[in-house]
Amino acid sequence: MAATIKGWARELGFGNLGITDTDLSAAEPGLLSWLDKHYHGDMDYMAKHGTKRSRPAELVPGTLRVISVSLDYMPEHAENSWQVLENPDKAYIARYAMGRDYHKVMRQKLQQLCSRITEHFGNFEYRVFADSAPVLEVALATKAGVGWRGKHTLLLNRQQGSWFFLGEIYTNLPLPIDPPTSSHCGSCSACIDICPTQAIVAPYELDARRCISYLTIEHKGSIPPELRPLIGNRVYGCDDCQLICPWNKFSVSTEESDFSVRNGLDSADLVTCFTWTEAEFQQRMAGSAIYRIGYLQWLRNVAVGLGNAPTSPAVVSALRSRQQDENELLREHVQWALARHGIAS
């Protein structure tokens, strides 16, 4: 049964599939320590869910096994990431978010896999997850042999690097479990050294409060002024720790058309992004993970990018157009950005 399921997973486009039990007792102390240090920032749900994240059978009673899968997402024809990052007039968007919302794609594929299992082997109990519930994804994928946790806390695989999503099926099927793989980071610290905000405070330990992905996506309030210059032109997420990782030399482009670049998001202009109306934002970002942060947070992020861009009439004009915006949060970030260009509010 396990071999058949793995074959179906490959047919559906998954890069890897591993099976593990529900014992995450080795990972739980690290989770609790991370929460105690308040590294989760404003993500209150991380603390609220507590040990449900590290005890799968508490989240879904009756769970015996967890099927962990990976799904490559790097589009083949996306603009070179380094070149976009080095052009301060461009808006850098994390490469996972340039196409369709991965939650939907992953959940759909997992459901297709479960439907095949049902058709072939009969009804069974299951629940699928796509970064949508208290699931300790990396720990489960590590136990299942899908890869190992890198020092940046993301999962790494020798054949895929780290440009992939993780998904899970919690099930009562007593499938044979797969052995974990060994770690291959060695003495490399490239991801730690390159982090713009030094959010990787120690190997395998991330302070989300300093992480650009957290600041531009999860954090809803004012971005700390001392971190804004370090964000550069990254307006949605950050890939630096992945871009520098030697293992991503072996990564492969996705074959999933849903992850193809939409609306030129691989190399959009900051000024253009800032001029979008709310209707334009909603139209362009429909079906995208970016849609979830909302229009005002998008403008907040782009304002920071414009504050870090070279001074030009176009940049100053774009910022001035929202200098008196009715939203206090946006207004504050615009005024900061203008001050960066020597213009008092």
Can you describe what's shown?
- By secondary structure, the chain is α+β, with helices and mostly antiparallel strands.
- It has a domain at 2-77 and 96-171.
- The protein has helices spanning 2-11, 28-36, 44-49, 56-59, 81-85, 102-121, 137-143, 190-194, 212-218, 228-231, 240-243, 270-275, 278-285, 295-308, 313-320, 328-340, and strands at residues 16-20, 65-72, 90-93, 126-129, 148-149, 155-156, 164-171, 200-202, 205-206, 234-236, 268-269.
- The strands form 4 sheets. The protein has a 4-stranded antiparallel sheet, with helices on both faces.
- A hairpin with a 5-residue loop joins strand 5 (148-149) and strand 6.
- The model has no long low-confidence stretch (mean pLDDT 97).
- It is found in: Cytoplasm.
- It is an enzyme of class 1 (oxidoreductase).
- One of its GO terms (cellular component) is cytoplasm.
- Pathway: tRNA modification; tRNA-queuosine biosynthesis.
- Belongs to the QueG family.
Tell me roughly what share of residues is in helical segments: 25-40%
Gross morphology is globular
Spatial order of the strands forming the largest sheet: 1-2-7-4
Give the ordered list of helices and strands: HEHHHEHEHEHEEEHEEHHEHEHHHHH
Mean pLDDT across the residues is 97
Low-confidence spans: none
**Number of alpha- plus pi-helical segments:** 16
Cα distance spanning the termini: 66 Å
Protein structure class: alpha+beta
Radius of gyration, whole Å: 21 Å
Largest beta sheet, briefly?
A: 4 strands, antiparallel
Strand content: 5-15%
Q: How many strand units?
A: 11
Keywords: 4Fe-4S, Cobalamin, Cobalt, Cytoplasm, Iron, Iron-sulfur, Metal-binding, Oxidoreductase, Queuosine biosynthesis, tRNA processing
Cofactor: cob(II)alamin; [4Fe-4S] cluster
Subunit structure: Monomer.
EC number: 1.17.99.6
